[in-house]
């Protein structure tokens, strides 16, 4: 009588254990974030005493204060600006290069592509020291342009790789048809290749947007002046100065984390695709 | 005509090559060069000192301590984090409810910035007002409470655990993707042959997953050795030098003591060490495949 019921019970038990494990880990993923949001809604007095996850009173004015007094509104807009500028730059520059590496012929093509790919493999440490020196020389340090150009460079190799892989698999017929119709190379890239590459472009956009939004070290080294700082650096500075103003710091952290979480939840399909593809490269 | 067409093609790669040359190639070679100089980063005069920087690194005890400490974090990530990731991926690789929910949740920590993760966890682990100590007291483990991040005995391990918390979602995703490529027929065949769960895991899952495991291991090692933003935000390298890691040391040489040459020499040393690690791994993974 070891059939039917026995196996069913065994399966149910196994499933129960598995769900228990998965739920525990999922809770550990979420709890710190809930605690962050919860702390951001308490006051300077209650935050050290009220240890409940759901505070008795919701002090939403913390967000107003963080946004205005803490200056997080400004930093938030800075971060948005850098993210958008860098992503636009990367999309244009890397898709042009990837298209050329995939479709066009010119001397040195393979060598150039190899150098771009090698850059992804070589763990260059301390390059930020030299980058700092270089930007000083070019008078690009403490400027938005300097930061944007550096960040475009950071995203180039991976983006070129992802796009080239796509262009390599793309059927040539459409481009041939466009060429016969008298379309220029730039025209073909813009009117034929880019529209077809939309799914990969989405991956490129999202991966780079996450990367720029979360970037810390270059922003720390490049920006001295407060009004230019992106959120991540500003949070660190804020933490150093107002050690005791935890509710505002937590509100600032929530302001930094929420857009990324929302973007992720909306675009998780592309992110997961990009991660699994990107990993195979590195 | 041919030349004109080639020139036209160069226009496509020109912006990428230009930016890449200025912001990658030039810094790359200038790091290699600056490592042999004594320079404060400001004065126009750089003094060539040959291998002195590297000699100093050899006897720089804090440097080697920092390297050992990032090795310790890497070891924890390699074992604990990846084992957890594999276990969760294995648990999700079946017909269960809420599979997608778990997958979405597990990848939330990896998309957050290290600054956010570091500062939130610093608040959770706070010795006086942290929720962790509060709960420990609440559930009767008051003797376990401590100042997690300023106690030299726990600081490094706590940092490593938070690093794992942030990172396990990566491994999970890659392991799951790998597990899903294993054809179901193989499991069925093993089942028909009378293999139990453990035997089919050993003879089907592990051989099919070995290349993914190696990939995740390489990514974990290279990624974790270079960890520093998380530590910068959580402890700043303290207490004392107990959570220092190499990249933090490079940053400290540059910003703290204005020794740009020494910072570059540290960068070169660390880069060479990482290259050697990847080389060893490459050989090991080749052997594992054969």
Automatic annotation (TrEMBL), chain A:
CDD domains: TM_PBP2
Transmembrane segments: 12-35, 80-99, 111-132, 144-163, 243-266
Keywords assigned by UniProt, alphabetized: Cell membrane, Membrane, Transmembrane, Transmembrane helix, Transport
Localization annotation: Cell membrane
Keyword Cell membrane tagged: yes
Xref: InterPro entries: MetI-like, MetI-like_sf
Domain ABC transmembrane type-1 stretches: 76-267
Annotated membrane topology: Multi-pass membrane protein
A Pfam short name: BPD_transp_1
Protein name: Sugar permease
GO (cellular component) term, any one: plasma membrane
GO biological process: transmembrane transport
Family per record: Belongs to the binding-protein-dependent transport system permease family.
Coiled-coil stretches: none
Domain of life, source organism: Bacteria
């Amino acid at each position: 009588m070891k059939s039917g019921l026995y196996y069913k019970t065994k399966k149910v038990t196994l499933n129960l254990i598995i769900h228990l494990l998965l739920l525990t880990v999922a809770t550990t993923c979420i709890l710190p974030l809930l605690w962050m949001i919860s702390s951001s809604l308490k006051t300077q007095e209650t935050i050290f005493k009220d240890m409940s996850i759901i505070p008795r009173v919701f002090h939403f004015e913390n967000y107003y204060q963080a946004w205005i007094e803490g200056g997080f509104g400004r930093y938030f807009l800075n971060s948005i600006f850098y993210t958008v500028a860098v992503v636009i730059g990367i999309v244009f520059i890397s898709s042009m290069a990837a298209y050329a590496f995939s479709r066009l012929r010119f001397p040195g093509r393979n060598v150039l592509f190899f150098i771009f790919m090698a850059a992804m493999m070589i763990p260059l440490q301390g390059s930020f020291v030299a980058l700092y020196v270089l930007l000083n020389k070019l008078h690009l340090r403490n400027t938005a342009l300097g930061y944007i150009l550096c960040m475009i460079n950071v995203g180039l190799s991976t983006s070129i790789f992802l796009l080239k892989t796509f262009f390599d698999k793309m059927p040539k017929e459409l481009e041939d048809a466009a060429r016969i119709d008298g379309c220029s190379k730039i025209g073909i890239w813009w009117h034929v290749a880019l529209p077809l590459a939309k799914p990969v472009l989405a991956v490129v956009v999202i991966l780079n947007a996450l990367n720029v939004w979360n970037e810390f070290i270059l922003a720390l080294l490049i920006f001295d002046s407060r009004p230019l700082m992106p959120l991540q650096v500003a949070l660190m500075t804020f933490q150093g100065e107002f050690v005791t103003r935890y509710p505002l710091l937590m509100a600032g952290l929530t302001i930094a984390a929420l857009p990324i979480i929302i973007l992720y939840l909306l675009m998780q399909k592309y992110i997961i695709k990009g991660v699994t593809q990107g990993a195979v490269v590195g | 005509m041919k030349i004109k067409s080639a020139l036209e093609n160069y226009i496509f790669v020109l912006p990428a090559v230009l930016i890449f040359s200025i912001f990658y190639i030039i810094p790359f070679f200038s790091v290699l060069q600056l490592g042999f100089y004594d320079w404060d980063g400001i004065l126009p005069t750089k003094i060539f000192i040959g291998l002195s920087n590297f000699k100093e690194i050899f006897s720089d005890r804090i440097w080697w301590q920092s390297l050992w400490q990032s090795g310790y974090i890497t070891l924890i990530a390699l074992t604990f984090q990846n084992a957890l990731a594999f276990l969760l991926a294995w648990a999700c690789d079946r017909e269960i409810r809420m599979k997608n929910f778990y997958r979405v949740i597990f990848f939330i920590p990896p998309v957050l910035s290290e600054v956010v993760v570091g500062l939130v966890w610093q608040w959770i682990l706070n010795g006086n007002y942290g929720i962790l100590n509060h709960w420990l007291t609440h559930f009767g483990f008051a003797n376990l409470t401590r100042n997690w991040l300023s106690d030299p005995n726990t600081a490094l391990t706590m940092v490593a655990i938070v690093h794992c918390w942030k990172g396990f979602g990566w491994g999970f995703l890659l392991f799951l993707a790998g597990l899903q490529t294993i054809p179901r027929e193989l499991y069925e065949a093993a089942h028909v042959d009378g293999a139990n769960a453990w035997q089919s895991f050993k003879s089907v899952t592990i051989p099919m997953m070995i290349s993914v495991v190696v990939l995740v291991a390489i990514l974990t090692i290279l990624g974790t050795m270079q960890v520093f933003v998380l530590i910068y935000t959580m402890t700043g390298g303290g207490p004392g030098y107990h959570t220092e890691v190499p990249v933090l040391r490079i940053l400290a040489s540059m910003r703290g003591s204005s020794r740009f040459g020494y910072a570059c020499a540290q960068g070169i040393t660390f880069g060479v060490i990482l290259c050697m690690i990847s080389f060893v791994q490459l050989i090991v993974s080749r052997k594992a495949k054969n």
